[in-house]
Amino acid sequence: MASATGIPEQHPTTVEAREDEPLLGTPGAVTQKEGVGIHHNLITGTATVAQAGIWILVALVWSGIFSHPLIFFSAHPLLNSSAILLQVQAILTLQPTATPKQKRIGTRVHFSLLAISNLSFIAALTIIEINKGDHPRFTSVHAILGLVTYILIALQASVGIIQYFFPSQILGSVERGKKIYKYHRLFGYFLLVLELATVAAATQTTYNQAVLGIQLWAVLVASVLVILGVGARIKKHKLGF
Ligand code: HEM
C-alpha cells in the first residue's frame, strides 16, 4: 500500500511476522503472545497434531505392553516411549517463544523435561542391556539404530548444556555459544525423526512380532502426525535460513 509520501508503506508487525513465518500455517498461531503462560505452547497451532501423534504412539506401545504379562523387559519400551513423549513436549514448549523472558522460561522448562527424558532413556538402555544377559548384542536393525540414537542424544544433550549454561567456560564466550543454537535446533529435529524411526524398527523385532504385535503402519501414521505437527511450527529464521 502507498503512503501519503508515495513511498510504499511497510507495517513493522507484518515484516516481523514474515520473518517468523513457519514452514506451514500462519505465524500468529505459533508465536507465544505477551502475558500468556508457557503451557499454552503445548497446544497452539499445529501442536495439537503433534500431540495427537505422540499420544497415539505412546498408547500403541503401552497397550501392547500392558495387554501381556509384565516382565523385566517391559520397562524398556515403556521408558523409551515416555522419553520420546517428553522430548516432543520439550520441543513444543520452546518453539513459539519470542521475547527474552519467554525464551528464558522456555529454555528452563525445555531443559527440565529433557533431563527427565534423558534419565528415562538411560534407564531404558540399562534395562535392555541387563535383560540381554549372555545373548548376542546389537544384532537387529532396531538395536543398531537404538544404539546410534542413544549416542546422538547424549551428544545433543552435552552440546545443549554447554552452549547455554557454560558457553564462556568451555567455548570462550556467550556469543560462541549462541552461534551453536541453530545447529542444536536442526540436530534436535533430526534426532526426533531418528527416535521415531527406532520405534518403527522395534515393530520388526522378533519379540514384537511374536508377542506384542504393535503394528508398523500404526507407528508410522502416529510418527507422520508428530513430524507434521512439529515441522509446521519450525521458524526458518531460527534455523538460520
Ligand atoms: C527411541 C526408542 C528406543 C531406543 C533408543 C531403543 C534402543 C534399543 C537398543 C539399543 C537395543 C539393543 C540392546 C542390545 O542389543 O544390546 C534395543 C533392543 C530391543 N528393543 Fe528397543 N529401543 C527403543 C524403543 C523400543 C520400543 C518402543 C520397543 C517396543 C516394542 C522396543 C523393543 C525392543 C526389543 C524387543 C529389543 C530386543 C531385540 C533386539 O535387541 O534386537 N524398543 N532397543
UniProtKB/TrEMBL annotation:
It is a multi-pass membrane protein. Residues 1-26 are annotated as: Disordered. Its cofactor is heme b. InterPro entries: CYB561D1/2 (IPR045150), Cyt_b561/ferric_Rdtase_TM (IPR006593). Residues 40-237 form the Cytochrome b561 domain. Its main location: membrane. Pfam families: Cytochrom_B561. CDD domains: Cyt_b561_CYB561D2_like. The chain crosses the membrane at residues 42-65, 109-128, 140-166, 186-204, 210-232. The keyword Protease does not apply. GO terms for cellular component: membrane. The keyword Lipoprotein does not apply. It is found in: Membrane. One of its GO terms (molecular function) is metal ion binding. Keywords: Electron transport, Heme, Iron, Membrane, Metal-binding, Transmembrane, Transmembrane helix, Transport. This is Cytochrome b561 domain-containing protein. It comes from Byssochlamys spectabilis (Paecilomyces variotii).
